[in-house]
Amino acid sequence: MSRIARRFATLRQQGRGALIPYVEACDPDYDTSLAILRGMPAAGADLIEVGVPFSDPSADGPTIQKAALRGLKGGSTMKRVLEMVAAFREGDDGTPIILMGYTNPITAYGPERFCVDAKAAGVDGLIVVDMPPEEADLLAGPAATAGLDIIRLVAPTTPDDRLPVVFNGASGFVYYVSITGVTGTRTASTDELAHALPRLRRATDLPIAIGFGIRTPELAANAVSVADAAVVASALLNTLEATLDADGKATARTVPAVLEQLRGLANAVHAVSKPVSE
Amino acid sequence: MTCSTIWQGLVFCRHPVQNRLTGGQGRLHDDTIEPRTYSCGVAKLSATDTQAGANSLRSGPDGRGRFGIFGGRFVAETLMPLLLELDGAYRAAQADPEFRRELDYYLKDYVGRPSPLWFARRMTEELGGAKIYMKREELNHTGSHKLNNVMGQILLARRMGRTRIVAETGAGQHGVATATVCALFGMKCAIYMGATDVERQKPNVFRMRLLGAEVVPVTAGAGTLKDAMNEAMRDWVTNVHDTYFLVGTVAGPHPYPQMVRDFQSIIGVETKEQIVAAEGRLPDTIVAAIGGGSNAMGIFHPFLDDPEVRLIGVEAAGCGLDSGRTAASIERGKPGVLHGNRTYLLQDADGQITEAHSISAGLDYPGVGPEHSWLSDIGRAEYVGATDQEALDAFQLCTRTEGIIPALESAHAIAYATKIAPDMGKDQIIVVNISGRGDKDIFTVAEHLGVKL
Predict the structure, then answer these.
(1) Is B118 helix (H, G, I), strand (E, B) or coil?
(2) For residue B388, is it within any domain?
């Protein structure tokens, strides 16, 4: 059983939903992002998404765009991202790590070598934003061989008859992009989520995480009350950005501020009780 | 207006194209072949679908939208259902004679097609070699080849019930063309343009605003075409319910590279007919500038199965191919994935896209259409570079000898033609695609010539 499957199984037994925070690699520098990553499990993270900076994040809103640029300026390369995950793994063998990013840095690295090295570093799953099922063969073989989960995105625009296409080859969990739009902008209404989730549940047994536009503890709690996990990215990155000095460098407040916000989100998420199942 | 299927399996438009050149004398040898009726605007579509044989180079892309390893649909899931819908709508439009008739009407009476093929006598004499012909796409309404594609896509968007258009633009030519048809059909229009380009293409920005478009300057990155493309995609993904993304070049996710090529192929279809009317044979060489590559793809495509015709795409070498300040994606890039397709990209070893540089805002893009990447790999077309300086020189030469002020984009093609023409025989023929007119560029050119306007 993969680390991701194990984690969701444990959460189900405990009757809890999951909080999945996001940290951009090397934002604004390697050490700061590693310190945030290392602090996340104790602050309540159940799984963690590590953003792989890309120069042209065309599906992301301004917050993640800026974080990606800071990450690149902070020296991020794919090699460095994997080093960061390996460093995290030295002290944490239980928290699943999912890399989130775009296709080109993976193809530049070489898909086979990437999957092998990512697994060796301690990565558990991959979310490749611009790789829909139609293009997934690029990574499917190497990821399966290495034992990495491919987490598929589903959108409000995905029609019912397409769901089997999207879920074919999906593993780990399913990421529901709850709005039509870019990250960190609009928030889906309770009604929209209540409508969306049953149609996904009918098509997959995988855990479902909701992302895009979850900014507050209330919204995160609302998300896990209908789904299995809530992803929070832009809200944490906004907090990080606000702590940087005039030159964009980390300050003493950077790591504590992000982790403190994370604790607030985690408390709200973990206060939601869910049906206990085996 | 009638069109006929004739000669080497190509579908030609048969309206008074040849008459402009030959005073009505230039008839093609079509009398022996049973005429089939096609509308000009989509003549190529029919050629591709029904006549490109198994060994044809014109039959791409495959079912996955790929040309060899290039192309595809690398987009977020939110957009995937829209691309599938677009693909279906485009196929339905291709098969609908009414769509063809409608497009044909607008191409003739609004765009002003066909565009002439001009024998550049003085430039030919000055260079002292091959005969140079110019395909006059700059004479289209709005001053470039861009309207060919935009007209096709806006009619498709209307069929699909969309009411709002978003587009990216570099030099502003695609933006102006898009704003123009939005005015024509009373549709809402948002044009994303890099802030750097907004600055260097002020006349086009003003034109777009006059036409009723909202011009959104994009400050991300270097503020050029790549960044405008990102932002247009973000707008589209946010406003999927009513918005059509009107891509201006033969790049982006499938079916855009195919669709834009098909709409632009009218250039090559006309050229083929016109050069045969004028010279009785095909040209030896066709030269066209490449940014994303739509004008080049449009003129190349009908000639892909004519191996005797050398096809040359001229990329913007900027300050020089090895200067590090270039836009020559095929010559200096590597295959990668950006903006929905796999193609040659300017990128670093870690797969981060690098900034392109060219004096011409329309060529200032770190990628290129996937079909060009494929044509380069299989060796059917050649890709070369012309520098900023060479383009400036060609801009002046063309203006001085032909009385035609070309766009700086097109000046790159002219620059390469001036390099090869002197070494070719006087009985040989080069066709240069003059993709746009240069009025928009006079400020840039003046600055480089040290003239204050």
Answers:
(1) strand
(2) yes
Catalytically active residues of B are 146, 168, 435
Say if residue B114 is preceded by a cis peptide, omega within 30 of 0: yes
> What's residue B10's pLDDT?
34
Both structure tokens of B215: 């011009």
Which whole-number Å values give the CA distances from B356 to A153, A166, B227, in the listed order? 32, 35, 11
Residue bearing tokens 């004519």: B306
- Residue B2 pLDDT grade (very low, low, confident, very high; cuts 50, 70, 90): very low
Mean pLDDT for B136-147 is 97
Minimal CA–CA distance to B382: which of B312, B288, B327? Answer: B312
Alpha-carbon distance B199 to B281, whole Å?
A: 45
Task: Establish if B294 belongs to a structural domain.
Answer: yes
Owning domain of residue B366: 117-144+265-448
Whether residue B74 and residue A103 make contact (CB cut-off 8 A), yes or no, is yes
In the numeric block, which tokens belong to residue A150? Answer: 């491919």
DSSP string, B284-346: SEEEEEESS-HHHHHHHGGGTT-TTSEEEEEEEEET-TTSS----HHHH-EEEEETEEEEEE-
How far is A1 from A147, CA to CA, in rounded Å?
Answer: 10
ipTM of the shown complex: 0.96
Nearest to B351 among A105, A135, A185 (CB): A105
Judged by CB atoms closer than 8 Å, whether chains meet at B351 and A106 is answered as: yes
Q: How many domains does chain B have?
A: 1
pLDDT at B361: 84
CB-CB neighbors (< 8 A) of A77 in chain B: 350
Residue B1 pLDDT > 50, yes or no?
no
Q: CA-to-CA distance for B255 and B75, rounded, in angstroms?
A: 12
Residues of chain A neighbouring B251 (CB-CB closer than 8 A):
none
